[in-house]
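Researcher: Here's the sequence for the chain we discussed earlier.
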Amino acid sequence: MNVFVQSPKAKASLAYGCRYRAHPSSPLKRLTFTTLLLLLPQSQNRCYSYRSLSPSLFLSRATITLHRSLSPHSPNPNFLTGNSCFFPMERFWSGSGINKNKAMVENLQTYGVVRSKKVAEVMEKVDRALFVPDGNAPYYDSPMPIGYNATISAPHMHATCLQLLEENLQPGMHALDVGSGTGYLTACFALMVGPQGCVVGVEHIPELVSSSIQNIQKSAAAPLLKEGSLAVHVGDGRQGWPEHAPYDAIHVGAAAPEIPQALIDQLKPGGRMVIPVGSIFQDLKVVEKSLDGSVSVRTETSVRYVPLTSRDAQLRNA
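Model: Thanks. This is the structure I predict for it:
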């Protein structure tokens, strides 16, 4: 995740749908540092700041917690639920100073997250406020809960995925959004491929599908929904949506333990998929299928997302 620094007395929870990295002064390697930091114990009214611990004491406490977390006899509930203390998080901005969608996009451009004119235009047209539940600051650079143990990702993660998929979201192309949630990124995809293209969102919570359709109907993508080039369906996204395959672009908005074969099969030769992979350690993977059908996978960045799982498991928060 990208990082804001909290005071030692502040409580924190793991923000899903964000990139993260270790502080550059950390004596530990990036992934080891970040994951161990997630496992530091949290009390009722405080959490530990890595800055207040010596490297040896930090590593000792984190290793003990890791051991306990992995033990079936004494699981660490913070670790299992993902509500661990997480200090060196970095957000590109925070607070309520950003109160316009255009200003949010301009900030993403300033920080180099949005680099293309097309992505900036689309994010300006699709107002994030229409997709964030009431009572939340829609332009705050953080993931937010949307109910049913799901989240909408932080703006910088949406921008990152749009940048990674831009070449595969050209007019007339087909795109699949797995775990479409509020419908925000699905709407962005639809504007990028246009009325001659096809965008399918798949979400296994029926209530989220209904609300996402309502969100899209208020947005700049509403005509595409009405004309049928954009659709959102109830289904198990791990199985993709074969009806409109193959897809030039596939986005997965939750972390899979491994890349589902069904999604690889539905990726078009020349296509690209962006998917978080992992459980304790998660990386945003970029999957590319060449014209001869061979598949290559590379890591873009470290991330933390909610798990890609069954509907029942998600509702149980398992």
